[in-house]
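Teaching assistant here, posting this on the class forum so everyone can see the example we discussed in section. The complex has two components, and the goal was to see what a joint structure prediction looks like when all of them are supplied at once.
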Amino acid sequence: QVQLQESGPGLVKPSQTLSLTCTVSGDSISSRDYYWSWIRQPPGKGLELIGYISYTGNTYYIPSLKSRVTISVETSKIQFSLNLSSVTAADTAVYFCGRVRSGYEWGVVDYWGQGILVTVSS
Amino acid sequence: EIVLTQSPDTLSLSPGERATLSCRASQSFSNTFLAWYQQKPGQAPRLLIFGASSRATGVPDRFSGSGSGTDFTLTISRLEPEDFAVYYCQQYGSSPWTFGQGTKVEIK
């Protein structure tokens, strides 16, 4: 059974860097069959893809966040992380990590973490 | 960026009724690369449908998806109490992948 679990601080000050980790169990981040993503959901709003990373370490970030985002795989190979710099209140959201299918179904998020609320406030 | 518009915003129905949810794209995208997710309060989204009409593992057959081009539909044939939730569509045929704003299915 694949499980993903987000962890990190729930409160970040404006202008600082938001750092989250996703721990994966029941699967390997090194698998060629999947990508690993971060998606966020501002309070009361819909879902927004932040970006994803492949097993080779290739990354994609959405244009609106590209200058502030880094997604990387930890050396443990069971965790991947999200760093979002220069945060503002607009970055307050529940952050989800997710497993993305590759191949013909590339883009389908078939497993999600429970999500972690990150509030940006002084 | 493709914008997905879901309608209605809220659907008020009784258990046993049929629910029809719409997802319209601002432009067409590759094939039928559209997915539907269900989200209950405080929970992560759950994959229901991918490829516009393929049910994910374990999803009851009362859930069905259809459509192509720019117009897609999620149908719940007979609502069960556990189906009252928010439903999101997502297109993955054009980068960046985008989600609709959601349709809330609530108990009437």
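For the discussion questions: The radius of gyration of chain A is 14 Å. Chain A touches chain B through 20 residues (CB under 8 Å). Think about how each of these relates to the inputs above.
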